[in-house]
Amino acid sequence: MSQVGYLVLAISILVALLAVFIVSFILYVRQPVPKGCENIKINDENCSSCNHKECKFYKGEGE
Amino acid sequence: MNPLNAFIAFILAIVSSMLIDNVVLSRFYGICPFLGVSKKVKSSLGMGIAVVFVIVMASLICYPLFELLKLAKIEFMDTVAYILVIASLVQLVGLFIKKFSPSLYKSLGIYLPLITTNCAVLGVVQSNTDQGLTFLMSLANAIGTSVGFLIIIVVFSCIRARLETANTPKAFKGLPIALITAALMALALMGLQGLFSGIQL
Amino acid sequence: MAREKGFTKKNFLKGIIAENPLFVSILGTCPALATTKSLEAAIGMGLLFTFVLICSSVLVSLLRKIISEEIRTPAYIVIIATFVTIVKMFSNAFLPELYSTLGVFISLIVVNCIVLGRAEAYASKNGVFDSFIDALGMGVGYTLAIILMAFFRELLGTGGFTIGAVFPIVKEPLTLQIIPEDYAISMFQMPAGAFIVFGIILAVLAFIKNRKEELKAAQARAEKIRKAEEAKKAAAAAQAKATVEGGNK
Amino acid sequence: MPSNMKKYLITSVTLGLITAGGALLIAGTNMLTRGTIEENKIKTINKGLSTIYGVDTLKTDPATLPEGKKFDYVINDYYVVKDEADAPLGYAFKTEGSNSYGKISLIVGFNADYIYKGVAVVLNEQSFASTLNKKYLNPLVKEGKTVDEVDVSCGATYGAKLVRSMVNSATNAAKYLKGANNG
């Protein structure tokens, strides 16, 4: 295949990958959360390995 | 390689990548969720099953994808393509769980976004490509690794529940004692090394 | 963030001591346990990691106005994956030994919790220069942390350090033997040793932290006792004065 | 509803632009570094060969085993090694194998009359858990052993077993070549 052919194939693969991702992303976001679990959060008490302030499972000033 | 040998090699490859060089204790992919595993066996089991599904699906998709990338002469784009595939897989798995089983979503939903940044998923898929394994062997590697990951985090969460009641020295409370236990587990698994040294991976 | 005078220095130093990504926030543990088998591999990993962290933090903070809220994580992951691939190619071309020693762990920088964490938490909210300083601090802090671990693991594991096996500075890789070969505990070169070294370092840091807290608490208690005594003394003095006045009235 | 659509459109355009920019950047670096990576591969093979044969500059022209015989792990086109004056130095076989820790590729060198000369590691992508290190390779086989009595002594570790089976099969290939050439 000519050089241009490879280029077109490469671009089409990347575009396809991106499209799949964006479609799944939009479907995931629009899908309503099932009734019973609006505000589920980490149910067990402390994720002891995450005392990094910005980590979303961070729980206050350490142990 | 008649089918029987192929099947035996397949099973040996699964058991070898599950126990002998376990993904967490000997190849060091997936330490982040391993250390953060909770003391409740149920939630770590849930996370493990989600990881098993994502790893096996990812390695099934990424093998033909890499062949396609080779065809288009852009093998260097493999990491970017894999991370996009893994991210969309996690979204799709989340979508199915949200739609079909709210109860599963209740116990598993929180862990799903964590799987994209789980080193084990990209680690397995990337090392399958780097080693140039055949499709069968990369599938065996994926199954073995992910089930090994599941076993190890479930066992570790039971040990961790037990560790809470043990009177460890104050400085070792929490993570340090968990790491020392992980070291003992790694030593135990190292004993199995060389069990199937004859197989052609 | 108010731009006090020492802000950039504090911003840089927080990555090394206060918020060290490996020992305090316990992030990026996968490469830390794996690549610290040899000191040189750890230094190599630290350099590559810091390069990717700086480039992605700077680019993320440059684009922070364009990238909208919900597409944030996937966009950052793609940016980081781009820089990781570039680093993989350059290291494969110019440092082939380092590339083959680190192997898959260069690609694993993409899912490293520190790079994504700094991008989302800091770079997406602050200016380019601050993100650069923050990334530099985090990178240097992480590199120093894995160098510390690699120092113990290689010294105890092989009894010495090999120089030139990864970086082509020396023609023939030479080993600097400190402990004689047959006294080396090869367990530290094994995965189990990595867990032990990491656990002990964390325990020592926790011990130091506890000791500091106890000292502070002891001082606070001593402070309280002293204040209570003063109050009692003052009350006793006042009471004594009152009786004297009552007496001579 | 259109505002929602517009929002998704913007997000997918930004993501598309970022990926396109990334792809261009990567393609550019690939152009830059592709040449050097190929050179490195050849350089390591030559360095391996020169360590085995102790000669700095040597010429190699690949040849294939007669009747296309295959030995596992052994890459079937081997090298006929000559020094500058084209005096034949020997035959070198390139072997490649991988266990679950990763790939190793060695060069096993034999001199002109098929006596074992040495082994050199050309590519070692064993992950950190592997216990193979260069210390095992040199005393692998005592020099001067003829092809028939080469038996590889090696540590019991997992990686070392792979190395032993690779050197053994390279020796079988050399024995086969000796038979073919002398016979």
Main traits of this protein?
heterotetramer; A: 63 residues; mainly alpha; 1 helix; 0% strand; disordered C terminus; D: 183 residues; alpha+beta; five-stranded antiparallel β-sheet; 2 helices; elongated
Mind sketching the topology for me?
The complex is a heterotetramer of chains A (63), B (201), C (249) and D (183).
Chain A: H1 3-30
Chain B: H1 3-20, H2 31-35, H3 41-71, H4 78-100, H5 102-108, H6 112-116, H7 119-131, H8 135-165, H9 175-190
Helix pairs in contact in B: 1-8, 3-4, 3-7, 3-8, 4-7, 7-8, 8-9
Chain C: H1 7-18, H2 29-35, H3 39-62, H4 72-94, H5 96-102, H6 104-107, H7 113-123, H8 128-158, E1 160-163, E2 174-177, H9 191-248
Antiparallel strand pairs in C: 1-2
Helix pairs in contact in C: 1-8, 3-4, 3-7, 3-8, 4-5, 4-7, 7-8, 8-9
The separation of the N and C termini of chain A measures: 62 Å
Strand content of chain D: 15-25%
The tally of helices of chain D reads 2
The total count of helices of chain A amounts to 1
Number of strands of chain D: 5
Structural class of chain A: mainly alpha
Mean pLDDT of chain A: 68
Tell me the fraction of residues in β-strands of chain A, as a range: under 5%
User: Helicity range of the residues of chain A?
Assistant: 40-55%
Large-scale geometry of chain D: elongated
Note the quaternary state here: heterotetramer
- Summed up, the domain count of chain D is 1
Radius of gyration of chain D, CA atoms, in whole angstroms: 23 Å
The shape of chain A, in one word, is: rod-shaped
> Are there runs of chain D of 5+ residues with pLDDT below 50, and where?
none
Q: What is the rounded Rg of chain A?
A: 21 Å
Write a compact overview of the structure shown.
With 201 residues, chain B is mostly helical.
Describe the model.
The complex is a heterotetramer of chains A (63), B (201), C (249) and D (183). The relative contact order of chain A is 0.07. Chain A has 63 residues and is mostly helical. Helices cover 44% and strands 0% of the residues of chain A. Chain A is rod-shaped and about 55 Å long. Chain B has 201 residues and is mostly helical. Chain B starts with a helix and ends in an 11-residue tail after the last helix. In chain B, 55% of the residues are buried. Chain C folds into 2 domains: 181 residues, no CATH class; 60 residues. Chain C has a two-stranded antiparallel ribbon with strand order 1-2. In chain C, helix 1 packs parallel to helix 8 and helix 3 packs antiparallel against helix 8. By secondary structure, chain D is of the alpha+beta class. In chain D, 42% of the residues lie in helices and 25% in strands. Chain D has a 5-stranded antiparallel sheet with strand order 1-2-3-4-5. In chain D, a hairpin with a 4-residue loop joins strand 2 and strand 3. The chains are: A mainly alpha (63), B mainly alpha (201), C mainly alpha (249), D alpha+beta (183). The interface between B and C is large, with 45 and 43 residues.
